[in-house]
Amino acid sequence: MGVPETDPLAQLRCRRLELKDSAKMQRAEPPPPPQTVTVLLVAIDGDTQSRIIDQLPPPHYQLVASSTPNLALHLLVDEKLHVDLVLSSVSSKDDEEGYNFIAQVQRLRKNIPHVVIFEAEGSGDPEIIRVNKLGVCYILWKPVSEQSSEIKNLRQHVFRRNEGSSSLVSFPQKSLKKENDQQPSEKEPESSKKQRMVWDKELNTLFVKAVNELGDGK
Q1: What is the edge-to-edge ordering of all strands in the sheet holding 138-141?
Q2: Per-residue pLDDT tens for 63-88?
Q3: Are β-strands 138-141 and 37-42 bridged in parallel, bridged antiparallel, or unpaired?
Q4: Strands 138-141 and 114-118
Q5: Can you give the pTM of this predicted structure?
Q6: CATH 3.20.20.70: does it fit domain 37-173+197-214?
Q7: Could you give the residue ranges of the DSSP H alpha helices within 27-154?
């Protein structure tokens, strides 16, 4: 025997089913990956910019260069310019303009992946942690000529962001070295040499998780 239509419980169940069906129909599909990725280059020196341009040819990439962070912010505010990825530089650990620009980009266009280029010398764990907290999804290190494969695959960060997943920050091996580490002398046996730590994807994920949970100690 069927449940009478006037049964309030039956009406509630029917209403819940209707809402579920409606939610499925209205659920937005993720946007398709762009055929051409537009990259905004910000305050990057001429030599580095030339090397990047060589690695990001059309039609896969369209490059827009800005000589200053302020000009880049005006371009981002202008909705007429579509930008898929921002690539900026931080010249040193004291480059407050570079750090402030990263923070302002996140406030303006939080959905845009941001990749930063660091100077190889003078940057370490504190700087990496800082840009990670500001929202940077990946780090390149000068000289960029040694990272051609990473540059060619910058579009992967756009695809990951469109799919709702975050990219991993690249942590360099150099930041794991201690200042008092010395190369073993020629007289030392092979067994006394220190083994190098391999910074793989799993270790990178654990590091990012620890940073997010514990903070940077400030």
Answers
A1: 61-66, 37-42, 85-90, 114-118, 138-141
A2: 999 999 999 999 998 877 889 999 99
A3: unpaired
A4: parallel
A5: 0.63
A6: no
A7: 46-55, 69-77, 96-108, 125-134, 148-152
